[in-house]
């Protein structure tokens, strides 16, 4: 199992664990809320019974204190109406408002407030019928403020925890990524420095061979020089990691065809290469880095072809958006649709000896250094894959006027 798959598995387990914690919290709070609902319902029914018997109980001094205690201690908002639906009394609502137009500087007459409260109560719970001195009344109630808060508490709690985890994850990921980038930049620059000496020696040895054996036109020496130049380009790539590359205006077709000419000589004869499309389109490129992109795509395509096959590069210009499309297609084994995004992750590889860094570096070079895009355009198992690179064209077109 590669590191990317391990990381995905751990993320999945942590996500499941967080979901289970959230579900447990919701269920526990829900049971607590239901318990409070029953208590408030019992309290409301007790209040109704006290109201029905209030006049009789008031006559008894022993029960008068009980009646007042029950009336004052109820936390449940209650409204009582007569048979015509007119509000006759209320309890547990805003104490600064009144339902009756009386001259009291401490109270504000607001009948609409009580109408809205009554509407909410009717929507939440059925009323209790009351009979006081032969007159019919109805008592309504709604959930207390504390109970309403408890209903939403687990969701608010989960939201806060999620935001905290998201912030912590982003902070740690950023710190870890910066640390990894620092290590990779240092390693790359040290590698470039170490490669400098043997490359210089190889250049000197080839010059000595040409002069000693009179091999100026020897094709083998020429290929050796091409490889040495390739090593120089690779060294230059590593030395530039961590610094902003310089982009220059180049013809895309020429840059890619030059690299294919070098690459296909060092690949199996069973793999056929072709390049088609617009030969004039131009884009801002850093050639050593962009060659790295093409190299990684061609290597992956060649590795995906088990026996005979072909690799084609098609260059298309989108005039409307002033973009350049570069499609690299192969007739290899293909990629499952579920892995279209995963192939660009560091550590993802299908080869036993692969590092899984090629396409990750390719994506970074295209997106971070060339302000472009790269993605799997299409793929079918057993038939092949097409990667698409999108770059900004350096050519500008002015609309023609009649």
TrEMBL record:
Keywords: ATP-binding, Kinase, Membrane, Nucleotide-binding, Phosphoprotein, Transferase, Transmembrane, Transmembrane helix, Two-component regulatory system. SUPFAM superfamilies: ATPase domain of HSP90 chaperone/DNA topoisomerase II/histidine kinase (SSF55874). GO terms for molecular function: kinase activity. PROSITE patterns: HIS_KIN. CDD domains: HisKA. Its EC number is 2.7.13.3. It is an enzyme of class 2 (transferase). It comes from the Bacteria. Residues 190-395 form the Histidine kinase domain. InterPro entries: HATPase_C_sf (IPR036890), HATPase_dom (IPR003594), His_kinase_dom (IPR005467), HisK_dim/P_dom (IPR003661), Sig_transdc_His_kin-like_C (IPR004358). The chain crosses the membrane at residues 12-29, 152-172. It catalyses: ATP + protein L-histidine = ADP + protein N-phospho-L-histidine. This is histidine kinase. It comes from Pedobacter jeongneungensis.
